[in-house]
Predict the 3D structure of the following.
Amino acid sequence: MLNKRDNKLRQEKTYIESEGIRFYGELRRFLSAQEIERAVSSPESILHVTRHITCLSPNARKKILKLTIIDGGEKIKVNDAFIDAQLQSIGSKFNEKINDPFKLLENCRAIAMEQIKEEIEIPWIYNSRIDEAVAKIKVRLSDGQKQKLGILSSEFVGNLSVVKVTSEIRQHLQKEQRGKGEKKDRVKINVVEGIDKPLTNDIVIAFKKHGLHEQPEFYTVYTGILTALIPRQEEQSDEEFLYNTGWWENYTFIK
């Protein structure tokens, strides 16, 4: 978990390191209960979460079809084809019983609030290059939390789609586009097929701010582990882009 109590959390000159992963920026105070309460779920947030869902309930799809998003500076009215492209994106997926991103985000808001009540301090990491701050929480769900998400305590919350590249896996690596929905997902990533995705009870919840004093956004939630950012040269410094590229050369998505 990325938090102050984690003795692996280390501030360096240009990044913070936690669980062996670099997050570029500087620590700027901590996520508060008030910020979690006020965090908005934007249309973009809903679509980010949708790509980690296997299938949508009819009611959730109906609500998503009413959304308009800003993608690469362009205003896009969401349609069925766009939703299907999100659902087909490569990445971790929630248990198929979890089929409503709106309900999922609200349940995860409550889970994030529980972490604050337990006095776990989640840092805002501010990247001045893009004037953006991100706070991430990795949580291993309890039986009670799983039940609130609509699954049995004996069931896993989802699967893990990112694994370290072994010598055996490297022989079968392919490069594929992450997704066909949002423009940010149209990047090449390592992919391997023919491997079962490990099951997990861990989720990552992320909040974001455009500027330190702006309205917090409930950015996304997914199953699995903390990872380096996907390399995007237009958004990252040379040092960050080089690090993220190197990290992802040694990890792959399971398709």
Observations:
- The radius of gyration is 18 Å.
- Confidence is low (pLDDT under 50) at residues 3-7.
- The first strand starts at residue 10 and ends at 11.
- Residues 72 and 183 are 6 Å apart (CA to CA).
